[in-house]
Amino acid sequence: MTTAPDLTGRIALVTGASRGIGYQIAKQMAAAGAHVIAVARTVGGLEDLDDDIKAENKQSGKGEATLVPLDLMDMAGIDRLGGAIFDRWGKLDILVANAGVLGVIAPIGHVEAKVFEKVMQINVTATWRLIRSVDPLLRRSDSGRALLLSSGAGSNPRAFWGPYAASKAAVDALARSWADETKNSALRVNAVDPGATRTAMRAQAMPGEDPKTLPTPAEVAARILAICGTDRTETGQLFHVRDNRFKSFRLPD
To answer: Which residues form a coiled coil (predicted)?
Structure first.
């Protein structure tokens, strides 16, 4: 059984929080006592999240959410987000960079330029911009934690997944570099491979798959939440949700 850490008083930023894994991570973080800064493009999904958090935590009076409608194509908006967090809280304790897009499943030579560019903008450039915006805030925490959502496609790319695989390989590289830069600080940085999950993105990628054979976003989120606690000291590694353990990024010879 996965045990949620006590996040009372922690400030957590979750992107892609309007649905799927991001929604569930934000919801469960709030239940664990965190104040969640929920970022997503879809306002309706953010409002649903806020309603869920308020309903579930009404009696406990624990976690709350601050909703931030933001399209991650808006790079200046990401920059402003870091400043706004500093002005209100002066720090950030947890980052979960979850937002991402699939693009298309197609031969590399058939992918339209605008599709490839959007995948790289959302999955890579926006992630870098987010790191740039909140790195100083995480360093002000007594035990900052940063999780970048990756994929098995990053280290084991398959046919027709070129843009997505390339973007997640880049995310892995960002995580490893950032972790090495901060290894002598209180900040711990890791990538997370959620594995196959019952989400809309998975259905888009694998339309013939029976979703009931896959774990739910809530189940996956619970395992991710468990590694956000101050007791976890791993850094520069890849957490495989399916195996529920950290692994080295190093590939076998």
So the answer is: none
